[in-house]
Amino acid sequence: MGLFDFLLGNKNKKIADFKNRGAIILDVRTKGEYQGGAIPGSKNIPLQQLSVRVQDVKKWNKPVITCCASGMRSASAAAILRSNGIEAMNGGGWFNLSQKL
User: Fold this and answer.
1) Cβ atoms of residues 77 and 68 within 8 Å
2) What is the pLDDT of residues 23-78, one digit of tens each?
3) Which letter does DSSP use for residue 63 in this model?
4) CA–CA distance from 86 to each of 10, 27, 36 (Å)?
């Protein structure tokens, strides 16, 4: 098993663990991107608004899996949430994440 497979395997396990604990899928793409296709049941808070809406996310009282188009914005979003005491992970691109749920 290569390093890439090892890392991906761990990510898939972490996604499964988060989902088993009732994680919320947070899509941080723009409203227009989200309306063009998204994971059913996910919530949408664009990355540009996340810092001012952290308290809204805290009220969910659940772990959060962030996603976007490619995984770049969702990585930033997960870091913002973690820095505010929210258990969060980067799920990557929304389409690929939808295949793992």
Assistant:
1) yes
2) 999 999 999 999 999 999 999 999 999 999 999 999 999 999 999 999 999 999 99
3) -
4) 20, 16, 28
Closest CA to 91 of 26, 22, 35: 26
CB atoms near residue 9 (< 10 Å): 11
Output the DSSP codes for 30-42. -HHHHHT---TT-
Quote the number of domains for the chain.
1
Whole-structure pTM value: 0.91
CATH number at residue 15: 3.40.250.10
Residue 16 CB neighbours (<10 A): 13
Q: In terms of residue numbers, what domain contains 94? A: 3-98
pLDDT of residue 11: 84
Rama region for 41: left / alpha / beta (φ>0; ψ in -120 to 50; rest): left
Query: Strand, coil or helix: what is 22?
Result: coil
